[in-house]
Design brief:
The complex is a heterodimer of chains A (about 260) and B (about 750). By secondary structure, chain A is of the alpha/beta class. Chain A has a single domain, classed as Rossmann fold, CATH 3.40.50.12140. A seven-stranded mixed β-sheet of chain A has the order 2-1-3-4-7-6-5. The longest helix of chain A is centred in the last third of the chain and has 21 residues. Chain A is globular. The two termini of chain A are about 20 Å apart. By secondary structure, chain B is of the alpha/beta class. Chain B folds into five domains: about 100 residues, no CATH class; about 150 residues, Rossmann fold (3-Layer(aba) Sandwich), CATH 3.40.50.410; about 100 residues, Immunoglobulins (Immunoglobulin-like), CATH 2.60.40.10; about 260 residues, Class I glutamine amidotransferase (GATase) domain (Rossmann fold); about 110 residues, Immunoglobulin-like (Sandwich), CATH 2.60.40. The two termini of chain B are about 35 Å apart. Classes of the chains: A alpha/beta (about 260), B alpha/beta (about 750). At the A-B interface, α1, α3, α6 and α7 of A face α7, β20, α9, β26 and α13 of B.
Chain lengths: ~260, ~750
Amino acid sequence: MITSIRTRERLTAAIFIIASLLLYPSSALALGDASKVTIAQIELDEGGVSRPSAWSRMLYEVQATTSVETASSVVTIGLDDPALFEYPFAVLVGDGAFEPFSVEAIEQLRAYLTYGGFLFIDDTTGLPSSPFDSSVRRLVGRLFPSRGLSPLASDHSLYRAFFLLDAPVGRVASNPWLEGVTIGETTRIIYCRNDLSGALVRDPSGRNQFQPVPNGERQRREAVKLGINLVLYALTSNYKQDQAHVRQLMQEGRLE
Amino acid sequence: MIELLFSGSLEDGGSLQWQGAGVLSGVIVLLLIIIMALSIFRYGQMKRLEVALMLPAVIALALAVLKPVWVVEGGHLEEPLSLVIVDNSRSMSVLEDGVPRSSAVERLLDVLEPDEIVLFGSDARSGSDFDFSDGASDLSAAFELVRNQFAGESLASISVVTDGLDSSYLRGEFRASGEIGDLGLPGPTSFYQVGTEGEVVDLSIAQMSAGAFAFLRTPFEIAAEVEGANFAGREVDVTLSRNGGIVSVRSITLDEVGRGNVVFSVNPTEIGTSSYSIEVPVLDEDAVPSNNTMSRAVRVVRDKLRVLQVCGSPSLDEKFLRLLLKQDPSVDLVSFFILRTYEDMGTGYNNNELSLIEFPYEMLFSTDLWSFDLVVLQNFNYRPYFGYRSNELLQNIADYVRQGGAMVMIGGDRSFDLGEYAGTPIESILPVGLGVSGPQVSLDSFRATLTPEGRQHSITRLLSEPSESEALWERLSELDGINLTTGASPGSAVLLRHPTVVVGGENAPVLAVREVGQGRTMALMGDSSWRWVMAEAAMGHGNQAYQRLWKNSMRWLVRDPVGDPVSLSVAQENYLLGGEVGVSVRVRDVGFTPIEGAEVSVVVNRATIGKPSDIESEDRVLITDSQGEASTLFQPEDTGVYRVSATATLEGQSLGGSTTVFAVTARDPELEEVSPDRDYLVSMAAAGGGEYFPPMDYRAPPSDEEAGHWVDETTSTPLWSGAWLPLIFGLFAGGSWWRRRVGGGR
């Protein structure tokens, strides 16, 4: 990524780059929509999904802000649907208790996560404890009995996947950390209890549906940045832990 | 009486000696007397005639036991002998002005005219068959031989012809104490020095050090100590060779005592065993040409496979490849992903909010490039970043590949023609042609089909059984689209093709490989191979197909011998001359299953430095056992670098081959010191009561005037030998027995 041209000697390079950009296609030609990154939102037992527009907005924000080519819409899918494997980024959003998934669904989700799938879970209640939270912990316990959810460290790659983030905020900022399940060096499940979806969702008229608390629009901006980081982390995993990145970020004072 | 009876003429002045005299003989005679006496007492009525007949028989028997001899001692003193002791060791072959110092020996022998010659080297022996080939100079053994052979005599002179490089304890004691005791030899011992100190010209590699192991693309040092007799202050060219080919030549100046050190930094670019040799020139006057070179074999291993993954945009394809590479403990992955392009910069975020770093493309594709085993360009368009240095940096990548590197280009909307590689140095190394005039992509989903080459190639052999591998390919998920090309480049192999899209008259390549110079390239014209993971996982098959495809690809691209069907190894890299070299071969199929009954031809060649052509060879044919293994032993007959090649066949079909090398060295202690030891010879001459003669001094040695050579002329005449003795015994004993029978006895 070119973020700056630091030296005068590279002025000439910059001129060439700018000239190149003028000739560069304004929109990329992905090898079909199937190659673009999209999000599968998992249906819960009531047959619907919470805050569906939040994740369409997330795809737009990623497309606009990063080099990632995203699809324009989210896919809704049942956890026991084998088509889940076509969408390596999935989200599970809710606020109430949900019935335990079938054994087959659990086994499929375990295989999905083991072989590279990523699941983001968002508790939209924003409460320290909720029926949804209990269901989530039961689900994770069935998926990975020996691991369970654990807090993500403040230097987790998620917090520097694209933006440098200090805290994982959503519609609320009550829980200061995210939780997750890590296999090897990669976190396969990330669980947020600050209603990230609530900060992103829009009403049918296109306006933000909820006002983030306590910091309003500044908090929403941080929530969007967290959502972008989530997608980038799902695609690049611990890329930002690579020494080349850590070293330079520390040299530039952007990372301690 | 005796003369009369036994027809011998006995000289006067002699003496009777009993050769059979001894305890046993005495006991036998005593027993005879006792038996005779008992017979007389027991048979008191024994007739006198019987006794008279028995007595001569008993006397004859006693004489046969005691063996009387008539000895007349005599002799005379002759002229004393002169003895020459010649050094037969290899140091006598050292050249001085192109002439071996041993040439002085013949001339000295002509002057000294010895009566006896003793040679010494590894041992000592009488004779004149000197060939100056012994590996030691044991002068003490020669002295011991002379003491035993001439015990009790005195010789006129003993002359030792040597360069003084005695390897026995005598010289060791002299060096320690500066003194030499009495030599104890039977005559005045003089020493003739052959060889001249200061005139020996000898350039040699005294020592060479190189670790037995080195890591690929990690520089290591090979050091050598050069010694030059009469080379103080002179400049010497030192040559480093690898497997017979010259790598580097360095000039060093030897110090005031003729020594110098040289260190070569070597950056191995190929795994396997290589033999490195250090050599100094052999001059016409070089005393010992054989010590001018030394070899060591070094096994180059891969610490980790260093992979550079550069991706133009994070994607699902990039995600799964990174996951695979990061999880592989044998891979050291360096990733650079373009997370934001210039198009994405107007979204209101400032740089301080971002964790992005500058893409270090200049460093990566210039200096750092050569440290990688494999470069993966995944959906990456160079142009926005390389700018005005595009051609230079792309040329670097092409050069890197041609010189042994490996590169993969993976498809996407910023790759191949869409990455603007047409007409660049990269196109010249790709396995597919660029410059498509029509659509540059096909967006239809398709299932890639295996080509005939793909059925055979190690990359696409996902399972050991070909039929199972083909069935797996038929099952693998469809891909989402394909980058179109103009078709396969000359010399490339297409392993997978599109089932329907045709370019240049053939189905469009999906996966193709190519050998370029010493390197290899691969092109995957799609960005959805990740589906081969998730679709297989959905069916409960895990990600083995995807893993095997990429691991096969990496092994093939970097020429990893681990993946070779035939692996060849020697028990160790460096041998001393005389040792046996164990060679082992293992043959297996692509699924690593041992192949039994394969016929393996093993050829061992010795190569000369600077001349890769082989000059000696030895062939063996082996058959692999149930473990797919076979082994044999070789006995190198000379020092140097040896190349071992193995080729395996099964039922007439080639299974592949492999090569390795080993080095055979020998440090000849006899030639580690070549300058004559004058002081030692002077002291030895003083201790031996003789004289020291410097080189070219061919005067006769001092002689012991009183010495002489005693010639023994003693004569011995056996008195009781001949056929008459058993005749007398038989006649009288028989007569006595007959008389007793006639007289009624038994």
